[in-house]
From TrEMBL:
InterPro entries: P-loop_NTPase. This is Adenylate kinase. Gene3D superfamilies: P-loop containing nucleotide triphosphate hydrolases. GO terms for molecular function: kinase activity. Keywords: Kinase, Transferase.
Amino acid sequence: MIILITGASHTGKTALAQKLLEKCKFPYLSIDHLKMGLIRSGNTELTPMSDDADLTDYLWPIVCEMIKTAIENKQNLIIEGCYIPFDWSKNFEKEYLDNIRYYCLVMSEDYIRNHFADIKRYASVIENRLDDEGCTLESVLKDNSHILELAINHNVNYVLIDDKYEIDINL
């Protein structure tokens, strides 16, 4: 089984992937790690500051082929990151889709307003964020609103974090 976890920045994608790794013993791939490996090795002209659309266009085809390879080898894998497009399923035939679960994490406006200090405090719970100055209440509200709109428009599975930060994914 392949588990895709995407969503707005600071929604806990990496923390959820870590939790699932510990629970299910599935390995996980951070698309950010792939991105930085390709950038640092000089295999792309893109930078960490490149446009998200450009990064998605570059990284997603690579990730798709990794997913297909894992499924063909009957291997489990958790993949997390913000570079999973909302029309992700168009890249897979039915036999692959049957083995993929997709989750998009989104925080509600109320949750963000009531828990913004917690969002900032847990930002580096799994990976160190070297520069988190761009994470403001306004940016988190805008990002989550945009991601929720896209999730609804693309009719994808999303997990709305509204009252408490509790995410339970049944596999």
